[in-house]
Design goal:
The chain is an alpha/beta fold. The chain has one domain. It has five helices and three strands, in the order ββααααβα. The chain has a three-stranded parallel beta sheet with strand order 1-3-2. The chain is globular. The mean pLDDT is 95.
Length: 115
């Protein structure tokens, strides 16, 4: 299984495989042609409420990750997570995010759960 995280602003690479945008909002200043996104499963992204809570510095990354994992356990998100896992079993999946520090973002939580 091959899953990795890249910033969506980095140029697409031939070895990216399936490119999945894991942000709820479309990245600023980026056209859809330039992003070359294959899938954008919004129900796999953190809820608007959780995203706002985390970006308001109301809690730690660990608490954010715990709450996000709870959201990912919901049936719709769990199904999408399984679909990404199945895609990774047959080829590379690149999770795309606009987060400035992907290692401390929801993308890192997804990477850990898919790994």
């Amino acid at each position: 299984m091959s899953v990795r995280v890249r910033r969506v602003y980095e140029p697409p690479s031939p070895d990216d495989g399936l490119r999945v945008l894991v942000d709820r909002l479309w990245p600023r200043g980026l056209t859809k042609d330039a992003a070359r996104v294959d899938a954008w499963p919004k129900d796999l992204t953190p809820s608007t409420e959780l995203r706002r809570w985390y970006h308001a510095d109301e809690g730690s990354y660990e608490e954010f990750a715990r709450r996000y994992e709870g959201e990912l356990a919901e049936p719709g998100a769990a199904r999408l997570l399984e679909e990404v896992r199945e895609s990774a079993a047959t080829g590379t999946v690149t999770l795309l995010t606009s987060a400035k520090v992907p290692e401390e973002s929801h993308a890192a939580v997804l990477l850990r759960l898919l790994g």
